[in-house]
Amino acid sequence: MFSRISTHKSTESCSEKIERLRMALADVDAVVIGARAGLSASAGLTYSGERFQSNFGDFIDKYGIQDMYSGGFYPFQTPEEHWAWWSRHIMLNRYERAPRPVYDKLLKLINGREYFVITTNVDHQFQLAGFDKKRLFYTQGDYGLWQCGEPCHFDTYDNEGTVRRMAEEQRNMRVSTELIPRCPKCGRPMIMNLRSDDTFVQDKGWYEAAERYKEFLWRYARGNVLYLELGVGGNTPSIIKYPFWKYTHENPDSVYACINLEKAAACREIAERSICVNADIGGVIARLLGEG
Ligand SMILES: [Zn+2]
Questions:
Q1: What span, in angstroms and rounded, lies between the C-alpha atoms of 285 and 68?
Q2: Cα(153) to centroid of ligand 1, in Å?
Q3: Domains of the chain, each with CATH number or no CATH
Q4: 126, 226, 238, 243: which one has the fewest Cβ atoms less than 10 Å from its Cβ?
Q5: Ligand 1 mean position to 145 CA, how many Å?
Q6: Neighbours of ion ligand 1 (CB under 5 A)
Q7: How far does the centroid of ligand 1 lie from the alpha carbon of residue 154, in Å?
Q8: How far apart, in whole angstroms, are the C-alpha atoms of residue 97 and residue 45?
Q9: How far is CA 267 from CA 10, 152, 261, in A?
Q10: What is the pLDDT of residue 170?
Q11: 87 CA distance to ligand 1 centroid (A)?
């Protein structure tokens, strides 16, 4: 396995790296995209600052919540308040398009090429931007799905209709009691289908997506493949970063590219076939499209 401390840092300029990435893209048989929070942040889905304050001012005043992420864990006293918070959060980060068209531009960039996306993002912005849902693997869940809180069974439930009503009809930070979701099989409260502990439900769709991803990797284990890592920080590198390093190492014709605001790096073993760009993802994609 790779040594975490032997990551390679090049002295190439940002423009030179982007040019190399442009050439790599022109020549690929397939692109495997691995995306984490940094991509959505570049698209404007920020969880603090003005976007948070303007949408959650009442919750900030009443509970002193610091940002959207921590608010998801706040121990509200009633389910009516819990779902008032969450429905607003889900509308803003799952059913509405991201403020900046970074996902749209990414699709434009890889248009016409074979691609597959693995992501830990739960906001579904890939699908909203028009990526083929058969080419997406959301490993950590989806803000748009609910599951039984126990769970007593392994199905998930689309929440759009109820969430829209909750967000529109809520008053004084409370939804009406009739809208609170309960498991259709056991009657227990439903929870978000997000991987936070071992109650996370991997439904049939999850397993099918995992299988399609595995097949894609197998089909393109050889040839000119670009492993394009976007917005993956230093946390939990075992889902995207380390596997991408491994696949690149195993296929001598492949290229690994990593774009992140900071800590873009590759291990020494694949350094010559790596392009690590410390910059805003949206800005790099715009330059690759000739817009920047
Ligand atoms: Zn149940």
A1: 27
A2: 6
A3: 7-42+98-141+203-288 (3.40.50.1220)
A4: 238
A5: 14
A6: 148, 152, 183, 185-186, 188
A7: 9
A8: 9
A9: 11, 43, 18
A10: 98
A11: 21
AA identity, residue 41: A
For residue 161, the CA-to-ligand 1 centroid distance in Å is 20
C-alpha of residue 163 to centroid of ligand 1, in Å: 19
pLDDT along the chain (292 residues), means of 10: 56 90 95 97 96 97 96 96 98 97 98 96 97 97 97 98 98 98 98 95 98 98 97 84 96 96 88 94 96 80
C-alpha 182 to ligand 1 mean position (Å): 8
Query: Ligand 1 centroid to 268 CA: how many Å?
Result: 49
Backbone angles phi, psi at 60, to 5 degrees: -65, -45
Structure tokens at 196: 């936070």
